[in-house]
Amino acid sequence: MSDQPKPLPFVYQFIAGAVAGVSELQSSTATGEEAYNSMVDCFRKIVRNEGFSRLYRGIEAPILMEAPKRATKFAANDEWGKFYRNLFGVPKMTQSLSVLTGATAGATEAFVVVPFELVKIRLQDKAQSHKYNGLVDCVRKVVQQEGVLTLYQGLESTMWRHILWNAGYFGCIFQVRELLPKAENKNIRASQSLAPKA
Q1: Where are the domains of the chain?
Q2: In terms of Cα–Cα distance, which of 106, 102, 75, 108 is closest to 175?
């Protein structure tokens, strides 16, 4: 017999790690005025201490990001779909090809998203927000003081987020379209094309 204890199965280790993280969050207390009891308490204290506009500081970046983000997502998905169909000699999309195409489109989309997110975070971060007088000033100062590549800090984690999300998203869209009845006319085809995206 071995003196070494048998390790716990993965499921038990996973649950123990999750519970430990939750209990650590609950046992750690914030100090000063920043302590919030609930989401409503947080909202109330931010408005009282910093003003209503603080809730929307940095909102320009996500708003400006939305159009190029969506355009890149769908255009990249179409282009990567053509590329992979040619590469693998497949005449039409399949479930696995939709997942691969979506993942690659997600990686492409991340390159568009990251600079906007960096600016948003800089404008919303209380420790840094005083340095910038709006979105354009933030971009200008980041590029001048830290270099243009700084706009791509966080690329790897953003890339993984978009790869995983878009793989699932476009994989699901493919599956939903496959389950829809065949369209008999142009109007039905148009509505079926939009339905999975809703």
Answers
A1: 58-197
A2: 102
Does domain 58-197 correspond to CATH entry 1.50.40.10? yes
Q: What is the pLDDT of residue 146?
A: 97
What's the pLDDT band for 105 if we cut at 50, 70, 90? very high
Q: How many CB atoms lie within 10 A of CB 72?
A: 18
- Spatial CB neighbours of 183, under 8 Å, sequence gap ≥ 6: 189, 192
Nearest Cα residue to 83 out of 62, 99, 104, 61: 104
Cα distance between residue 100 and residue 168, in whole Å:
10
In the block, which residue shows the tokens 């399949």?
94
Buried b / exposed e across 40-65, counting CB within 10 Å, b at 16+?
eeeeeeeeeeeeeeeeebbebbeeeb
25 vs 133, more confident: 133
Provide the pLDDT for residue 102: 98
